[in-house]
Automatic annotation (TrEMBL):
NCBIfam families: de_GSH_amidase. CDD domains: nitrilase_3. SUPFAM superfamilies: Carbon-nitrogen hydrolase (SSF56317). Pfam families: CN_hydrolase. Residues 2-239 form the CN hydrolase domain. It comes from the Bacteria. This is Deaminated glutathione amidase. It comes from Candidatus Schmidhempelia bombi str. Bimp. Belongs to the carbon-nitrogen hydrolase superfamily. NIT1/NIT2 family. InterPro entries: C-N_Hydrolase, C-N_Hydrolase_sf, De_GSH_amidase, UPF0012_CS.
Amino acid sequence: MLKVALGQFVVSRSWQDNLATTITLMQQAEAANAHLLVLPEGILARDINDPDLNSKQAQPLDGPFVNSLLNISQTMSLTTIMTIHTPALEGLTYNTLIAIHQGKIVAKYRKLHLYDAFTDKESAKVIAGDQIPPLLDIAGTKIGLMICYDLRFPELARRLVIDGADVLVLPAAWVRGPLKESHWELLLRTRALENTAYMIGVSECGVRNIGCSMVVDPLGVVVTQATEQPSLIFAEVDKKRIAYARNILPVLKNTRFNKPQLT
């Protein structure tokens, strides 16, 4: 069994405060013997009244935020996944997912699909990535990596599962709005069911974002779900459940389409 922890919180405008919250969640997940902790998207800084704060507070992967987490993680067995904004050219940033384990960055991925929707325009401040996310092996389980708006593009989830993923992990800052909580649940359950894979979605909570982090099993069943409040919840990934789902619903074998490719 792979034990996963989902830590949702309200990202503040102070990276030092967010660092302290992240360290606390890591320590709590480690104490609970979790193998994996998933945190929200863009956890360096956020201010609803200052939409440029992500760019202004961006740090490189060798900056003080990540270095502090790497130091803390050295004695932990836990792997922690999150995204932060890292500097790019001319004041722009990358929305960068990192996985850290025992003092090292063991995987990284730059967000492919930028949130130019529902009146937002992420591409005004962020440069899109151009690489398929790597797979991460945690306790013998293959993990596929995605970020927030990626959830609305079934090609990426299917590509990761064809590549070998049994679990799809999605840090997010899912913005509030009409029907947005329904979109969140519907899309997480759909990506899980159509790929017979576990889906782990962790969203920031607070005034701007919905929270409602959840784990969905390979047959689309919600295993655990957080509320709209800051919380740390746990679930187990059962490889027998994956095998069962793929046996009775062999969509990965029955598909008539080739592996999705990045344009």
